[in-house]
Amino acid sequence: MTAYDRDNHGWRSYPRGLLVLALATFVLFLARGMVLPFLMIYFAQIVGLGESLAGAGIALSSVVGVVATLALARTIDRYGARRILLLAVLAMAAVHATLWLGRSPGLFFCLMSLFGIAINVYWPASDTLATAFLPPERAGEVFGLQRVANALGLGLGGLLGGWLVTGGDPAAYRTSFLASSAGILCAALLIWWLVPPVHRRSAMDGTALQGDWRGLLTDRRFLASQLLLLLGVAGFTQFQVSVPPFLREEAGFRERTIGALFAVNTLVVLLAQVPVARWTTGRPFGHLFAATGIGWAIAYASFALTPQTAAAASIGVLIYSLAELLFMPASGAVVVALSPSYQRARALAFASVVWAIGWGGAAWIAGVLLERQLAHLLWSGTVAVMLGLAVLAARLTAFLGGQPSTEQPASAGLGRES
Prior knowledge:
Low-confidence stretches: 1-7, 201-209, 404-418
Distance between the termini: 40 Å
Largest sheet: 2 strands, antiparallel
Shape: globular
Number of helices: 17
Strand order of the largest sheet: 1-2
Helix content: over 70%
Mean pLDDT: 84
Radius of gyration: 20 Å
Structural class: mainly alpha
């Protein structure tokens, strides 16, 4: 056992504030999980807007979210990550309570724009707050812990949501949206009552004001990492957005079965994410992204075979989940590793923008291809992109490195957030 393992083993190595934040994340994604796997199904097939228009709405939410993130990134340093996180979660609750009303294209696009603002501001605020509890060399563990929380929430929420909406009754979908909103409000209360304000040392001595976008966007290593992240997000998105409507429409799966498959993904993440995140500490980021690309290429090739053999869906979910164990901690840790503390809020905000672009663009393309019954192009293209990720990541391994420099963690609850 290494010194790292002795000093950082078990739940006791995590601050109470980080564990409570993980609990709030679980509650939040339990609520969101009731609707997210079925969002494309509801708008495209239940409401009848069509996959192309529904995909365009998701893409619009990402575009609007990108603008909001870039405009509001500085507020995280100015007003505190916890305060901005609370506002984002409250906005999310309001949006989820009204999403079911998006039965016309105009109202649907308006609601999805608000949806994009809320979730894209949430991510950098949440990541900034979470990573402040531990030093940068343990950032992979922070993202792994948060991923366990949101995956468990999404999986259980997917099961609950699938049970509620099986049969395609619009009233059942409305109930699911409203219950989701109530759960998100519970998450906001947890953050407000139990998660303490966190102060980075750099913010307290004034260095947080040294950073700017120009310094970040001229960092070639950081930009290279974000290119890999963009490709990875394109792969991640297809499981969340395209696999559910494909399995329902092309393979004849019911919503309850789709929810069960998402629960398998949850179980894998729950059992293995934190140990795998610890294992990835210090490993070359290029190797982790390359392994992700190979795994997801195999997974999506399996999903493409599901109409011919239903068992391929289970194989695809399992392989996807194993690769996801590498991608999630690496995707966050690489941002922390390649950004100084005074640039971290901006770096995490930029990564959120990359997520929004990858998510929105991939969702829009997928919606167009599924509506035109060109699923074979969707899956072959996704496999090709994932193989491209693997090759590019392998070539950039030495350039990116792996282990962040040691830095003191934040102090929690020492007065007002700055």
